Every structure is written in C-alpha cells, then in structure tokens.
Amino acid sequence: MRLTLGTANFLKNYSLIQKDNLNPLYKKKLILKAKILGIKFIDTSPSYGNAEKIIGKTGVKIFKIITKIPKLPKSKINNISDWILKNLKNSLKNLNQKKIYALLIHDKSDFMNNKKNYLEAFNIIKRKDLVEKIGVSLYEAKDLNKIVKYWKPDIVQIPYNIIDRRIQNKKFINVIKKNSIELHVRSIFLKGMLVNQKVYPEAFNEWEKKINYWFKWCKNKKIKPSTAAFLFVKENKLIKNIVVGFDKIDQMIEIKKFENSKIKKFPHIKIHDRLFLNPHKWKLKMNNIIIIQARLNSKRLPFKVLLKIGNKRIIDLIYDRIKSVKTINDIIFAIPNNDLNKNLFKYLKNKGFKVFLGSHKNVLDRYFKAAKKYNADTIIRITADCPFADPKLIQEMHKFFMNHEFDYVSNTIYRTYPDGLDVEIFSFKALYKCWKNAKSSYNREHVTSHIITSKNFNKHNYEFKENLSKARLTLDCPEDYLVIKEIFNKFKKNYNLNWYKASKYYLKNFDFMKNKHLVKS
Question: pTM for the complete prediction?
Fold first, then answer.
C-alpha cells in the first residue's frame, strides 16, 4: 500500500470540515511535510484550482505525480487528440515535470463516447514517453466492465471507505485481477463526514444512526475516526495507492504514525444509496424555499386568510407553524397583483414578510417568477388555506426529496393524508419545464396539474401509514371555518396542535360534514 497526497481539497470548501480555502503557503507546507514523512505520490488535476502550479512551484521532483484529463469541452469534439496532448503538456509545465507517473481520464463518459480519439491520444502520449501509466477515475465499480471491453487501463481510481464498499463486488475484483490493473482509492473520509460527527448535512438524517454508530465505535476503541477510516481501507490487499486529502499537517502525521497498525474487526455500516455515496450528487448548498400561495378573493369564503383563530389570523398561524422547518432558506408569499389584494399585500409587508406580486389567474406564472426572483433550487408549495400545515411533515418530505432523484414529490397525487396537509415539492428545473409546456388555462391556474398528468416528470406520492384522507382540515368554506375553530378551541387554542390529533378528532366528531365539501376554490 502506498499513501498518496490528494489535492482535491486545495479547492475552496471541498470537504464538509474545511470551510475556508487553504492558503497557498499552507498548501506548500502540506506538500513539503508529505516529502519529509516519506509520502511519494501526489494526486492532482487541472480542475483542482491552482494545485498543479503550487506543486510545481514547491520544487519537489521526488514525487510521482498523477494528474487528470479534464472534462472534454463540446468545442473540442473534432480535435480530441490534440486537445488531450495540449492539456497534458500544460499540466507538465505547471508541475515543472518532464514526465509524470500517471494520467487519468476524469470523466469516463468522454472516453466511452470518443474511444477511437482517446486511444489514439494515449498511443501518442506513450510514444513521447510523457507518462508511465494511463488510467481512469470512476465513481461506480460497474463502469469498469464497460471500459475493459475496449481498453485495458493501467490504473483505476475509485471511491472506497467504511460506508462505501462497492469495490468489494466479486465481478469488479475479478476484472482488476484478470487485467492486472493497479487499484487506487479515494474518498476514504467521504469529504470529512467520517472524520467529524458534526459536519454531516441535515438532509442526511436518514442515515444518522449509521453515521453516529461509526463515531461511537471509534470512541469505544479510543481511536481517531480519521485513523480508523484509513486503517479500514488499508486492510484491502488489492489496493496499491490510497489517496488522502489532508486539511491539517497533524492529521497527516497521525495517519503516518499508525500506518502499520491493524484493527481486528470493523463495524458493518454499509450504505447502498448512490445519492449518499456520490458527493457530486449531494444537495448541500441549494436554496430551498417555501412559497405560500394566498389571496383574498376566494368565492366561497372571501378574506379567509385574514380570519382569526383566537387572537391569530390564519395566515399568521400558517407562517408561525412552518417557519421552524430547518431545511429551508426562506418563506415567500405569492399573491395576485390586483386591487382586490392590496390590503393583503399591505398586511404581509407590515409584518415584515417577503411578498411576490404576480398574475391573478396564471398562478403557475406567479409561482415560476417568484421562484426565479428568489433564486430557488427547490420549491415547497403550501397554500394559505391549510392552517394545520405541519413543519415536521414538510421537513420529512423535503429530506426525502433531497435524497432521491424525483422531479416532484407530493402527498396529494392520491391521498392518505388529510385534505389540508397538502405539501408539494419540486425542483426549479421541473417548475420551469412545467411553466414552459403547460398550455391550457386550467394548467396555468393550477400550478402543478401539468406535472401530475404529464409523463415527462419523475413523480412520487408520499404516503402515510394510515389512510386519513377523509379528514378535512382545510379552509374552503364557512363550514370549514366553524370546524377548524372548534378543533382549536377543543385543544385550548394550541396553535402548534399536532395534525394527527386534529384529524382523529375530526373523524370522530365531524365526519358527517364530508359530503358538503365536494369542490375546492
């Protein structure tokens, strides 16, 4: 096993621990310390900011350097061989090297789509003796099977850690052994998540138990998580190089100190979800907003959002309930820009709320333009006739959306939750697609009806363990208002009243009213 100094963390905010950019002087110190500690390999890329130049300026030619071919620009599609060669020569210049140990394809799809050109470039590079080995950087173990049908790489670099054990797949191991491929692994700390218990994102709470168990195990063993993570990887005898990005020199010293140590048994904490295992798919820095749709000119119950429950208006009640959702960045009210809603605009602005004025009838346009103005990546749609809107449910559904690749997640496609617990979550990309393609007046008035009926969106219906769809907790007509007031009065005007209790109370006492509510405004 050969320890390799990784430089991907030379980029700003690369890991979850490192919030600030490493300054150039400290980067040089890391490189020089690696030399002193006997580390002989450096992994880098033109994509890692100024990493190659810093390595070159440090003047340490003792290292065996591994760099990458950047992603192929569309403009170079007709001149691939020359482009690859030009990039390599530029890297050699930056690194102050005449020859490097290895050149890796950074994006395997570029190779698969342009195999002939890449193989031609590799032959030229080998003839010119510019690199010792040529390989590929992968994210999925299964991709190696596709590549070896056309080319045998000298090196494969791939993620591997205590949680991500996909390379233990027998087919992958057989391909590595059969083709005598040199195996390098990276992401052994999973961007710091396996090193610091406090850094994992809110959206990953689905795996909280497994992550916490890892840190508890390390504590019981009296070993630092970074050292334990390294020693786990080192146990795999198939691995030749372990790429580690060090944020601190002390961490490098610690790993080298225990380099030859062993741990008899590691915890079994595998996670299989690719959205968790691939940091490129993490949704960490997204702008997630709630847009509350509101108006005063409801036909069946005008001014309903300003009606009171106790001393609180409905619209304030909804806001106060949902403002505790931890996974959102902002709450926006989207209201019609007309004379009928001037008083609502004034009321919301006086409260200090953010308000977007848009089309009255084209509510889809109002939503789209509100989301665009506030640079939303993900939109959670709530309507102002849902006084029991529940922050825990919204957060639970939002985390589900964040951890899966759906365009649209809702609990309303077919109901198991009560009417009035409506939550719809969609990406800005899906909203834009809907806004662009929805043509009918019905689909323009009803924000997500086109998404629900179209086959061009990946949708998921979020279900409750019980079917409580007969419960009605929405505010649509005068009868609803009487019911909602009575429920809150029954529970002593508890404005944070749990929706489940309210639903059960409704079904026990007000189910006779269900046939009076056949049409929503």
Answer: 0.59
